[in-house]
Design a protein that fits this description.
With 650 residues, this protein is mainly beta. It has 4 domains: 21-103, no CATH class; 108-212, Trypsin-like serine proteases (Thrombin, subunit H); 230-337, Trypsin-like serine proteases (Thrombin, subunit H); 389-647, Extracellular Endonuclease, subunit A (Extracellular Endonuclease, Chain A, 3-Layer(aba) Sandwich), CATH 3.40.570. The protein has 10 helices and 36 strands. The strands form 7 sheets. It has an 8-stranded antiparallel beta sheet. An 8-stranded antiparallel beta sheet has the order 22-23-24-27-30-31-34-36, with helices on both faces. Strands 14-15-16-19-18-17 form a 6-stranded antiparallel beta barrel. A hairpin with a 5-residue loop joins strand 8 and strand 9. The longest helix has 19 residues, at 21-39.
Length: 650
């Protein structure tokens, strides 16, 4: 922050001693960092920080400022609380530093009061959403969206607010975040605005981010007409301003820095939070004399320059205010720098070629989805390859994202079974002429934060057992296109929604790798137009699938290859099974996996899917008309694939 301060009390009166003013400040900061937690073990001390002495002949001097729940004058009274007297001075590095004791308690700023009618715009559903608006975890009353930020891990746009606003004591990563908060509009099923990605409650602050979904976003702070563009560190006497859900725009003055405060979050959870304190600004009095009230939690405190102009510099994240019955109006804020470091976020959107979603030139996001790509493209080939349609009997089992049964990723889409917690099918496109060879080093399997955890099988299913993580859409199939797009495809192939649990014997019984070579074999044998292929695949979800550690492990997997050859659409369906499909004999783990080509009509019957017009392009169905040997005792048309040459019908 600049040294030219508009507030005349800014220039410090330095305590006696041999140290220069700058050195004194560093000594005090070091003292609070080292000794703050020890002092907060005292049951009556609520915070310790660096401030200016109030009264006592040393008014305005830098001091170590303590706040206590009850300010008492006699030692017996103090000791009756299990507390100890605070000395009038502390020797810090050879300098005599005065102390100051104030009566203050703190509470998280999320208790919500009754609202007037009509409801202000910031408490209504907004699209695009903006900082200063009401927001919250679906089970939290309401807080404030502080700023639009970007996740440094993947570039997605996120909402920044507090832990106790976006997470809360009963929340967990992957939960839904709604805008407005539940108190302002209890139709939470209609108001989803994002998914909780990361959160922290501790020394670095009370903070969390939620990935924006199903909404546009405008970074301009409501009623301040500025978007957060930089972060800074506050100094004593700085003028600051915030835009909060409850008190709207309020100004304040930084009156304590490098503070650690003890906050009771309820349910037996008491946390020590690093922060700074803000008091009222007499030049800009707040309405009703309150610079913060319940529901303001998560607001961004922005610096005000010496001319009284609001800047784009965010110095803090509001999280608490005075306790009930405390006559002293004040607010606490986490340091912006600590919050950004802890949550791994930035104010800078990724370059256009790396951005996970498009945006228009106005700074208002044009995207409404957090997916890394548009997903499977039915028109990827010169002939349409439609999504399979899930049959009526199992439609209620399909997870719907934004009312769609298809969850999009870069170059692929997933239709997810809620009961089985894995893909019913995956559809993906392969551009053979533009495939890239990128390493998987450093990539890890991850849950999709857009989807509730209860509908996904995570890493806990694959530890200390014989289950393999099996990609449905192969990683290598998705790594194509421009460099940034190919890298996204590489990374996004590792979502658990694209993974199915497979017995180790499955991977060890792939007929010399035929299962994984199906697409490549197509390229080698025929003149595929533009070297493009569309693929559908997944497990066959049967009630008879064996259960292992609470998970029904599929015993069959299928894949449909669709391509255009000399202008004609062709499709081939394959199943890797332990059954004798010609004779309808179920081996049930007693036989090795066998690779079969079957008709799309038969495949649809086996896994409750309708392949629509693609059935007309089925090469096996057409060939079976003149080849009766393909018809088995079961009445099914099937042919076992015993070698690479068997992949093709001559």
């Amino acid at each position: 922050m600049p040294e030219d301060k508009s507030n005349p009390s800014y220039n410090p009166a330095v305590p006696g001693g041999n140290s220069a003013p700058g050195a004194i400040m560093e000594k005090l900061r070091d003292f609070v960092r080292r000794e703050g937690a020890r002092y907060l073990q005292d049951p009556n001390i609520t915070s310790i920080g660096i401030g200016r002495k109030i009264g006592g002949g040393k008014d305005g001097q830098l001091c170590i400022q303590f706040t206590v729940g009850r300010k008492l004058t006699t030692n017996p009274e103090i000791e009756s609380l299990g507390s100890k007297p605070i000395p009038t001075e502390l020797n810090i590095g050879g300098d005599a530093i005065p102390t100051d004791v104030l009566e203050r308690s703190y509470k998280p700023s999320f208790k919500v009061i009754a609202e007037p009618v009509p409801k202000p715009a910031r408490k209504q559903r907004l699209d695009p959403i903006q900082p200063g608006a009401s927001v919250g975890h679906l089970r939290v009353s309401a807080g404030t969206l502080g700023a639009i930020v970007y996740d440094t891990r993947d570039g997605y746009a996120c909402m920044l607010s507090n832990w106790h606003v976006l997470n809360g004591p009963d929340g967990s990563l992957g939960d839904t975040v709604v805008q407005p908060g539940r108190f302002d509009d209890d139709r939470v099923d209609l108001n989803k605005a994002g998914t909780l990605v990361r959160s922290h409650l501790g020394a670095a602050g009370d903070c969390a981010i939620a990935r924006i979904e199903n909404r546009g976003y405008d970074p301009m702070v409501i009623d301040l007409q500025v978007k957060v563009g930089r972060i800074g560190e506050p100094e004593l006497g700085d003028s600051v301003v915030k835009s909060g859900r409850t008190t709207n725009v309020t100004y304040g003055l930084v009156r304590r820095v490098d503070t650690v405060a003890k906050i009771d979050y309820g349910q037996g959870r008491e946390e020590t939070i690093g922060c700074f304190e803000i008091g009222p600004d007499s030049q800009h009095p707040a309405q009703e004399g309150q610079i913060s009230m319940g529901g303001d939690s998560g607001s961004a405190w922005l610096a005000v320059d010496p001319n009284g102009q609001v800047t784009d510099v965010m110095v803090g994240l509001h999280f608490a205010g005075e306790g009930q019955g405390d006559p002293d109006d004040h607010a606490l804020a986490c340091y912006a720098k600590s919050v950004f470091n802890k949550l791994e976020i930035t104010l800078n959107p990724p370059p256009a070629d790396l951005a996970p979603s498009p945006a228009d030139g106005s700074g208002i996001s044009a995207t409404a989805d957090s997916a890394g790509g548009a997903g499977f493209n039915e028109s990827f080939l010169s002939k349409k390859v439609p999504f399979p349609i899930v049959k009526q009997a199992v439609q209620n089992d399909v997870y719907r994202l934004h009312n769609s049964p298809h969850i999009p990723y870069t170059h692929y889409s997933v239709c997810l079974s809620k009961s089985r917690r894995m893909a019913r099918f995956v559809a993906w496109n392969i551009d053979g002429a533009n495939l890239k060879k990128y390493s998987r080093t450093g990539l890890s399997f991850q849950l999709d934060s857009r989807i509730p955890k209860e509908f996904q099988i995570g890493n806990e299913a694959y530890t200390d057992n014989k289950l393999d993580r099996g990609h449905v859409a192969r990683r290598a199939d998705l790594v194509w296109g421009p460099a940034a797009e190919a890298r996204r495809g590489n990374r996004e192939s590792f979502y658990y929604t694209n993974i199915t649990p497979q017995h180790q014997r499955f991977n060890q019984s792939e007929r010399g790798g035929l299962w994984g070579l199906l697409e490549n074999a197509i390229y080698d044998d025929v003149e595929v137009d533009d070297l493009r292929v569309s693929v559908l695949g997944g497990p066959v979800l049967k009630e008879s699938d064996r259960e292992y550690r609470g998970i029904q492990v599929p015993s069959e997997f299928w894949k449909v290859i669709a391509f255009v050859e000399t202008g004609k659409l062709k499709a081939k369906a394959f199943v890797l099974s332990q059954s004798d499909l010609l004779n309808d004999i179920e081996a049930l783990d007693l036989d090795e996996f066998r690779l079969w080509q079957i008709t799309l009509a038969d495949l649809g019957a086996r896994n409750s899917l309708d392949f629509g017009s693609l059935v007309q392009a089925d090469t096996l169905a057409l060939e079976s008309v003149t080849r009766p040997e393909l018809l088995g005792a079961s009445g099914r048309v099937a042919r076992e694939i015993l070698s690479r040459d068997d992949l093709f019908l001559r």
